[in-house]
Design brief:
Layout: H1 6-9, H2 31-34, E1 37-40, E2 44-50, H3 52-56, E3 76-82, E4 84-93, H4 94-99, H5 106-130, E5 138-140, H6 153-168, E6 174-178, H7 179-186, H8 189-195, H9 205-212, E7 216-220, E8 223-225, E9 235-237, E10 243-246, E11 260-265, E12 277-283, E13 288-301, E14 307-310
């Protein structure tokens, strides 16, 4: 006896209460948090640098009665920054907008998509500028890699802190590592043995910060597709098997040292460039609306001596 089937009584439609998109959370990216942000009014400019050697020299002398005090001074120079402008847009045609099914929100989807793109670009740029060998005061690789049973990551971090302290007078307060390194530390005996009798906590960024004696540990958990559009996707984590130990202040200021600063030019997008600015405007000849993201920044290393770079710390 003929009976209606499930496909006869139901026509597939788009669900309005869920969709699938691969959006990484902002906390996975460290570029905007690694160094303090300095909002600048000009795309390129100079800033003053004071001589560390002059400030740290022991020059105070005894003064005999009726004589002048010993004299001294310090040298002053300038350095430069240059905020390149980065931008990307997505057009939404009138026909596409008119035919979009619920729950699609074309403007919101485009905004989130472009924001993700800018986060990736900033993270990749920060890693290329700051998370590499050859740019910091000291480069080193642990004698025993951190995924080996006898490794000593805590001692290695202390060596880094002491080196920076000796060379600058500042104790590093920030450790930045890739997720590959973080994964190795979760099961590292040097870490686990310190907490197994005193805490039931799992190994987190906060716990590592306490063990390393720093204010914060930042873990790079961003991933991106390195293949060109149309090619088979090739996904990679941003950041190799490396660690940066550095000193950064809570806020920038005059005569305030820092391993680096995020120079952000506020002149883009009508002065909204504290990070990135999204704009929407009409392109009538294309019969489309354009959603555009724009930012101008320079991840500037201002004191290489305030950083110690540990490369290839795991196998």
């Amino acid at each position: 006896m003929p009976q209606p089937t499930s496909t006869d009584v139901h026509v597939d439609a788009i669900l309005t209460n869920m969709s699938v998109a691969y959006m990484q959370e902002a906390y996975a990216f460290v570029a905007s948090r690694a160094f303090p942000t300095v909002n600048v009014n000009k795309q390129t400019d100079k800033y003053f640098t004071y001589s560390q050697a002059d400030f740290f020299r022991d020059q105070v002398q005894k003064r005999a009665d009726g004589t002048e005090s010993a004299g001294t001074g310090y040298s002053l120079s300038t350095a430069t920054y240059a905020c390149d402008v980065y931008a990307l847009h997505k057009d939404i045609g009138d026909q596409t907008r008119a035919n979009a099914d619920s729950p699609l929100n074309m403007d919101m989807d485009a905004t989130r998509f472009l924001t993700q793109q800018m986060l990736i670009r900033q993270e990749v740029q920060w890693a290329a500028d700051s998370f590499v060998t050859g740019v910091w005061g000291t480069d080193s690789t642990p004698g025993t890699l951190w995924d080996a049973a006898s490794s000593t990551p805590i001692a290695n971090i202390e060596t880094a802190k002491n080196t920076v302290l000796t060379n600058t007078g500042y104790v590093p307060n920030t450790v930045i590592m890739s997720y590959k390194v973080f994964s190795a530390l979760v099961d590292n005996s040097d870490i686990v043995d310190r907490i197994k009798y005193t805490s039931q906590e799992s190994v987190t960024e906060d716990l590592l910060a306490r063990l390393f004696g720093v204010d914060r540990v930042l873990v790079m958990a961003g991933t991106y597709n390195t293949a060109a559009e149309g090619a088979s996707a090739s996904y990679s984590q941003i950041g190799d098997k490396d660690v940066l130990v550095c000193y950064t202040p809570a806020n920038p200021g005059l005569m305030v040292p820092s391993a680096g600063y995020n120079m952000v030019w506020t002149g883009v997008s009508a002065g909204l460039g504290a990070g990135a600015a999204i704009s929407r405007y009409r392109i009538e000849e294309r019969r489309a609306d354009r959603i555009e993201i724009e930012a101008a920044f320079d991840f500037k290393i201002v004191s290489s001596a305030l950083g110690y770079f540990l490369s290839n710390v795991t196998s």
